[in-house]
C-alpha cells in the first residue's frame, strides 16, 4: 500500500515539518489552487514525489525557462495525462468549467469532452489507473449550484472507463461543513480540501498477482 498525502485549495498551517514527518507519505498529490512554494515545501519535507494538476486560480503553465512557469520544482504535471509515481498510476484533469471570459485553466463542458477523451486515450497505453486527480468534481457529485462551481460532465464517462479506486478533487470549499465521500461503482470520490491522507494499493500490482 502507498501512503498518500493529498492537498488542495487551502494552505494548511498545521502541516508543519514535524507533522509531515509523522505522516511520512510516499507520495504527495495536489488538486490545484495552491502556491508552488508551499507544494515544494511539502514534497521536500518528506522527500516524496509530487504530482499535481492546476486549479483555475493557478497561473498559466507555458514552456518557459523558469521552473515556476511550469509548476512546482521537481513536480510532475498530470493534466490530461497519465503519470506514474511511487508505484501508482495517476490520471489528471486540471481546471474548472469556464465561468468568466478570462483566466487560465477554465474550459467549456465541450472542451472538457475533448480533454477527457485525450486522457482516456492515453490511459489505454498506461495500464490500470489507481487515482483520478482533478481540480473540479463531476457534475452532480459534490459540486455547487453557482456558476463558478459547476462540476464537469465529462468526468462521468471518464470514471466509467478508468474505474480508479479513488477520484480526488478540490475546488468546492467546505467552509466547515462535512464533505462526505461519494461512491461511483468501484471509485470513492473525495473532496480533499485542505488535505487528507489515504492508503492506495496499485491495481497493476494486483493484476500481476492474479496472473501469477
Brief write-up:
By secondary structure, this protein is α/β, with parallel strands linked by helices. The protein has helices at residues 17-23, 36-46, 109-123, 155-162, 203-211; strands spanning 2-7, 27-30, 50-52, 76-77, 81-85, 88-93, 96-97, 106-107, 131-134, 166-169, 182-184, 187-191, 195-200. A 6-stranded mixed beta sheet has the order 5-6-9-10-12-11.
General description of the model:
Helix 3 (109-123) packs parallel to helix 4 (155-162). This protein has a six-stranded mixed sheet with strand order 5-6-9-10-12-11. A five-stranded mixed sheet has the order 4-3-2-1-13, with helices on one face. A two-stranded parallel sheet has the order 7-8. It is α/β, with parallel strands linked by helices and 212 residues long. It has helices spanning 17-23, 36-46, 109-123, 155-162, 203-211; strands at 2-7, 27-30, 50-52, 76-77, 81-85, 88-93, 96-97, 106-107, 131-134, 166-169, 182-184, 187-191, 195-200. It has five helices and 13 strands. It is 24% helix and 25% strand.
Which features would summarize this protein structure in a list?
single chain; alpha/beta; five-stranded mixed sheet; 5 helices; 13 strands; globular
Amino acid at each position: 500500500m502507498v501512503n498518500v498525502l493529498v492537498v488542495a485549495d487551502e494552505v494548511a498551517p498545521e502541516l508543519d515539518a514535524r507533522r509531515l514527518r509523522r505522516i511520512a507519505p510516499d507520495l504527495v498529490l495536489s488538486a490545484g489552487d495552491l502556491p508552488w512554494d508551499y507544494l515544494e515545501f511539502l514534497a521536500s519535507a518528506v522527500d516524496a514525489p509530487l504530482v499535481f494538476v492546476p486549479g483555475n486560480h493557478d497561473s498559466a503553465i507555458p514552456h518557459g525557462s523558469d521552473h515556476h512557469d511550469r509548476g512546482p520544482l521537481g513536480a510532475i504535471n498530470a493534466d490530461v495525462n497519465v503519470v506514474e509515481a511511487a508505484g501508482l498510476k495517476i490520471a489528471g484533469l486540471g481546471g474548472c468549467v469556464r465561468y468568466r471570459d478570462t483566466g487560465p485553466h477554465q474550459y467549456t463542458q465541450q472542451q472538457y469532452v475533448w480533454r477527457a477523451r485525450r486522457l482516456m486515450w492515453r490511459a489505454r497505453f498506461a495500464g490500470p489507473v489507481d487515482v483520478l486527480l482533478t481540480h473540479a468534481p463531476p457534475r452532480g457529485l459534490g459540486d455547487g449550484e453557482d456558476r463558478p462551481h459547476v462540476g464537469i460532465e465529462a468526468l462521468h464517462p471518464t470514471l466509467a472507463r478508468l474505474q480508479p479506486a479513488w477520484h480526488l478533487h478540490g475546488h468546492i470549499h467546505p467552509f466547515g461543513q462535512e464533505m462526505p465521500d461519494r461512491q461511483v461503482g468501484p471509485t470513492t470520490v473525495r473532496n480533499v480540501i485542505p488535505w487528507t491522507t489515504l492508503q492506495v494499493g496499485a491495481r497493476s500490482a494486483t493484476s500481476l498477482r492474479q496472473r501469477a
